[in-house]
Specification:
This protein has five helices and no strands. The chain is mostly helical and about 110 residues long. The protein has one domain. Helix 3 packs antiparallel against helix 4 and helix 3 runs parallel beside helix 5.
Length: about 110
């Protein structure tokens, strides 16, 4: 068995899953400040502060777990996290898709040529 194969329950997959869940929470928090929900969100200052804090924490956790996944896959942490930070949320989704794709490639070893 190849040592570079990524198992479905590997640390890389767990970090990607945690990063994905954190991104979903962060995008949900950002959506709370968009027009259909903004009036309800800012109606109470405590609610607005709680949603803002939850969004900030989720974004930070997303970036931390994305960096962990990149590090465990022996990829450039700075490159992947900067892509995610500078182009949030599209860059975050792109980074997750690409790292997940690279993990799938490592999971299925190629046939010998």
């Amino acid at each position: 068995m190849n040592s570079a194969v990524v198992r479905p329950d590997s640390p890389e997959q767990r970090a990607l899953t945690a990063s994905t869940l954190a991104l979903v929470v962060a995008v949900g928090g950002v959506a709370m400040f968009l027009p259909p929900l903004v009036r309800h969100t800012v109606e109470l200052p405590l609610r607005a502060a709680a949603v803002g804090l939850a969004t900030a924490c989720a974004m930070l956790l997303h970036w931390v777990f994305l960096g962990l996944a990149a590090q465990r896959m022996q990829r450039s942490v700075a490159g992947w996290v900067s892509l995610s930070v500078l182009l949030f949320p599209v860059g975050s989704a792109t980074a997750l898709i690409l790292l997940g794709w690279f993990a799938d490639e490592r999971r299925t070893p190629r046939a010998a040529m």
